[in-house]
Amino acid sequence: MPRYALHLPGLQSVNWINVLVVFVLTSFATMFALANLTPVQLHFLGVSSAAIPVYIPVFIAFILGFSGGVLALTFSRRKHKLEIAWLRQEHERLQREVDNLRNIPLQDDV
C-alpha cells in the first residue's frame, strides 16, 4: 500500500455508484437516439454529408468534446504530478536540514 494512500471503509460502494451512473447515462443516450431518428444533411466549409440521423452528429460532438477535456486534463495532471514530485524532494531536503540543525551540539560561550 502506498505511503499516502487512505483506507476508507465502504469504498466498494463507489463502484456501484459508477455502475449506476453509467447505466443512467447509457439509458438517456439510447432514449435520445431513438427519439431523434430524423435524417439530416450536414454542410460545413462547402462539404456536405449524406443524410444521417440527428443523434449521430450530436454523439460525435459529445465524443470530441469529451476527448478534448480528457486530453487537457492529462496535461494538467502531468504538470501537477511533476510539481508534487518537486515538492516532495524539497520537503525531504528541508527535513534533512532540520535534522542536521537539531543534531548540532549547543555550546555555552561563558
Automatic annotation (TrEMBL):
Residues 77-104 form a coiled coil. It comes from the Bacteria. Residues 36-98 form the Lipopolysaccharide assembly protein A domain. GO terms for cellular component: plasma membrane. InterPro entries: LapA_dom. The keyword Transmembrane applies. Keywords: Cell membrane, Coiled coil, Membrane, Transmembrane, Transmembrane helix. It holds the Pfam family LapA_dom. This is LapA family protein. It comes from Mariprofundus erugo. The chain crosses the membrane at residues 16-34, 54-75. The lineage of its organism: Bacteria, Pseudomonadati, Pseudomonadota, Candidatius Mariprofundia, Mariprofundales.
